[in-house]
Amino acid sequence: MVETGRLSPDAVRRMFDRIAPVYDVMNRVMTAGLDQRWRRITAQTVVHPGDRVLDAACGTGDLALAAVRAGGRVTGLDFSERMLERARRKSVAVEWVLGDLTSLPFEDESFEVATVGFGVRNVEDLDGALRELRRVLGGGGRVGILEITRPKGPLRWFYALWFDRIVPLLGKVLPGGSAYSYLPASVRRFPGTDELAERLRGAGFEEVRYRTFAGGIVALHTGVAL
């Protein structure tokens, strides 16, 4: 199952419960500390002061906190209780909710902004998740999806070495971190930047654009709800 990059939703939930204690450390190691900057850019790109913001698949809450700093009134949602426990320790300014990105427990048009940071890659039904994000946004609402992608330029060789070889080895050093052997396979099966843009359009978003960071290793997709 790990080799294909496909796990059942329950298996993914258990995996994130298991890696919660090392999640923040591994994010910093894998990105040389740049993940916080990418989250800040994501929030600053789509969040306006006073916006109601949903950060779905929020993990330990770093993107949700970036949205707070951008002026948003933020709800953070994740299906891993262990991840949410760590998020709650970071801030009481966010409403932390246990729930699933593919079946959001919110009414239609509940938010002006929806963000996902390094989370859509793990859902079983990507198109269903994108439709759910569109459903909870009012017309003109903005979406921002930050995700690992596959570089096409000269960095692709470094990328293959780092994510396929080094990151899984680093994960094995930390308690529960062996689950990071799932990461390379999950990235390989995930749609590329152009395909994800098309699927956002298919889910009901327009003005879909993306920008890449770190030589194309990470992409930020944005769009506006029709």
Q: What's the topology here?
A:
Blueprint: H1 9-19, H2 23-31, H3 35-46, E1 52-56, H4 62-69, E2 73-78, H5 81-90, E3 95-98, E4 111-117, H6 126-135, E5 137-148, H7 156-173, H8 182-189, H9 193-202, E6 205-213, E7 218-225
Overview of the structural elements:
It is built from nine helices and seven strands; from the N terminus they run H-H-H-E-H-E-H-E-E-H-E-H-H-H-E-E. With about 230 residues, it is α/β, with parallel strands linked by helices. It has one domain: Rossmann fold (3-Layer(aba) Sandwich). The chain has a seven-stranded mixed beta sheet with strand order 3-2-1-4-5-7-6, sandwiched between helices. The longest helix has 18 residues, at about 155-175. The chain starts with 8 loop residues before the first helix and ends with a strand.
